Amino acid sequence: MLLGVNYQYQIVGEILMKQTAGIHHISAIVGHPQENIDFYAGILGLRLVKKTINFDDPGTYHFYFGNETGKPGTIITFFPWINAYKGKVGGGQVGVTTYAIPPGKLSFWEQRLQKFHIDYRKTERFGETYLQFEDPHGLKLELVERQEGERNNWTFGDITPEVAIKGFAGVVLLSVHPEQTVQTLQHVMGLEKIAEENSFIRFQSIGDIGNLIDIKVAPQERGSMGVGTVHHIAWRAKDDEDQLQWENYIREKGFGVTPVRDRNYFNAIYFREFGEILFEIATDPPGFMVDESFGSMGQQLKLPPQYEHHRSQLEARLVPVEVRNLDK
After folding, report:
1. Are 71 and 167 in contact (CB under 8 A)?
2. For the segment 224-245, what is each residue's pLDDT rounded down to a tens digit?
3. Residue 41 CA neighbour count, 13 Å, CB half
4. Dihedral sign from CA coordinates of 315, 318, 323, 326
5. Which one of 42, 120, 153, 282 is CB 3.0 to 4.6 Å from 24, fit for a cystine?
6. How many CA atoms, within 13 angstroms, populate the side-chain half-sphere of residue 239?
7. Is pTM, for the whole model, over 0.90?
8. What is the DSSP letter of 156?
């Protein structure tokens, strides 16, 4: 039984269970900011929808990439730290970030990776073919063809809407205690277990993008945060009211959860599930056009009000960056 659109519950037995629509965004730690922009905008063709700062470390950029509007389910965000220590991918993290491309376009992307001398390999999982590769800082990525999800209407370089990345297909989770993470996905986030194959279990959310979550069934050795690792995965809440209900719901399930934090483009709460993966629940609104027009998104450094009077010092401290067309 579903009540509303995206503001969701289902009844399992006698229990009323909330459901998320799927992934809102993924946030990762990377190295040099220009290398980060060149890869995700110049090679993968994603749009830089916001250039701001890390609210908790204002001397550092915070970049947001997504489809043409930065719709939830398409957004990957980065904290780029020059000369930062290398992380270790492992338990308590998103191990692989999976992007969805239109059906029949895997060969285009294979050729594009070859063009930019990016090593990749093909692999199979749950009857699908994946292209697996890494970004310049070691973040593990993969591409898979999916029918679901809206077309990305952003054009940049040789990337057109016919071949463009739609958004997230899903993720591969690595857990220190997989049975605990499975319980959280099913009985807290409201995902449905739909398949099990070899070393993976697959879960599905109710959305059409960022909706398939694979988890390795074997416990994984703890990872360490640093360059080339995912910091957290964020799940979707419909709005502020829905998020407050999530906050109470998560607390009732026995998790410690943060108060609501204003991230300008969404509000956020955080909790660490018992497999040690950091989860966020983020609101769909207000989105990335609250302080820029559609045409100008990502072009200027946008600061939250509390940092605006430090603009000159921050701009002097941050290295200059630009979105470059690498296909010229």
Report:
1. yes
2. 999 999 999 999 999 999 999 9
3. 24
4. positive
5. 282
6. 4
7. yes
8. B
